[in-house]
Amino acid sequence: MEPIEITGQGLSPLTAVALGQRRTPVVLGSAARQRMAAAATAVAEIAKVRPVYGRTTGVGANRDVLTTDPEHGARLLASHSTTGTTPYPKDVVRLGLLIRVNQLAAGGSGLTPEVADAIIALLNDDELPDLHRGGAIGTGDLGPLAELGLALGDVIDGTSALPLLSSNAITLAECCLAHVEAATLINVVPLVGALSHVALHGNGEVYDARVHDARPQPGQVRVARRMRALLEGLPLAPARVQDPFGLRAFAQVLGPAVDHVDALGNALTVDINAAAENPLVATDTVLHNGNWHAMPIALALDALRLSLHSIATLSTSRLANLVDPEFTGLSRFLASGAEASSGVMMIEYVAHDALASARSSAQPATLGTATLSRGAEHHASFAPQAAALTAQLLDALRDVLSCELVTAVRAIRLAGLSPDELAPAAVGPWLADALAALPEALTDRSLRDDLQIARGLLTQWGDRQIEHPAEASGPAE
């Protein structure tokens, strides 16, 4: 493959994740190389006439201690490489290194182009260093980036250690992965919801454009448009004048998550292309600042998790309707066979177990507090913790949606509906896909395998919509 130029601008979370996953070779762009070289020359001259944090001073509470020790940088990397014992996954490390190079390419760090070249060599040769969790609280990924500095060897000299650490690149990598996963999963929620709508003979009035034009919340409008595209022409008479909340408030609950995943993507796009360095090297000076603070990212993650939790709670609401004969006209728990069969009774328990996990993961990480380094640092965003919680919640949400998908398809199968009978509604082919994948047997048995198949279907459907966006016309359009 031809290498992709890293320029310090125009990198999106989706593109960054794709470059990392495909292990696409990269190269530092010529304009970026010039910016880095100019900044490195400038900061060397500036440091001769005024203190520069981390270069001619200590760090943290040692910011007022001047030093000319040529080993200062080496000692800084050695001490700051103190981390926990859990390694980051290699995909996070690869993406984190890519993001750090892109940030350096934006200029402003004072690091030489050779530092970027050395990181790029690790990427292109797939010789990724072992980086570990621990010590990052949203004010710079100090520990893992110090480990990176040690892995780079002699290219990092006594004055370039601190500038390398002035970044949340590893956290941003986890955030980009979570953002892509959230966007993909949100895009398949309408497919699961549409199948529940079919099973429950829902009332399509809830998605009428006039309803959502009357309250034009952007995400809500997009979800309603997606549901109309899936259900338009559905030849099933609605069972009720007014549906339960799981159906009636579908767009109003999924819509905010659509908006919040967009907001996270926008915040990430800024930070992965930013020269968020401390100090920032300008043309003729250095500017000490707080751009290492990841509060915009942490808040966006917290808001997204709260909205994802609401998706999970509404899914369990539809699940409760699906096992209730008053809403489906079918047997209790969609049972089949001998009297007093349990059917999908246990699926509700599995779903609420996953929902409990989602609820725990939804707690805002930004409520944390920290006072560190003899009071020099009084605040933290806890963005790394927010990123980890988001990954946990997404996994739990996938479990909840898998429970709903298995149950909705079982109800449709038990009712004797075929995909052809749903024509011309676009939900038909998705039902055919699910019917082909999920086992036909309706007698009492373990449904563990069914849930695993459903998880796989959610992944396949998400990937299909990324590859064929016109087919989706959904929340991530």
Instruction: Report low-confidence residues grouped into runs of 5 or more.
Output: 473-477
Radius of gyration: 26 Å
Q: So, CATH architecture of the largest domain?
A: Up-down Bundle
* Largest sheet report: 2 strands, parallel
Question: Which homologous superfamily in CATH is the superfamily of the largest domain?
Answer: Fumarase/aspartase (Central domain)
Strand order of the largest sheet: 1-2
Note the gap between the termini. 29 Å
Helix content class: 55-70%
CATH class membership of the largest domain:
Mainly Alpha
CATH topology of the largest domain: Fumarase C, Chain A, domain 2
Overall geometry comes to elongated
Count of DSSP strands:
4
Q: Helix/strand-derived class? A: mainly alpha
Task: Tell me about this structure.
With 477 residues, the protein is mainly α. It folds into two domains: 4-167, Orthogonal Bundle (Fumarase C, Chain B, domain 1); 178-472, Fumarase C, Chain A, domain 2 (Up-down Bundle). It contains 19 helices and four strands. The protein has helices at 13-22, 30-46, 72-80, 90-105, 113-124, 142-152, 161-165, 169-199, 209-213, 218-231, 245-248, 250-272, 295-322, 325-328, 345-361, 383-415, 427-437, 448-467, 469-472, and strands at residues 4-6, 26-28, 280-281, 286-287. The strands form two sheets. Strands 1-2 form a two-stranded parallel ribbon. The protein has a two-stranded antiparallel sheet with strand order 3-4. Helix 10 crosses helix 12. The chain starts with a strand and ends in a 5-residue tail after the last helix.
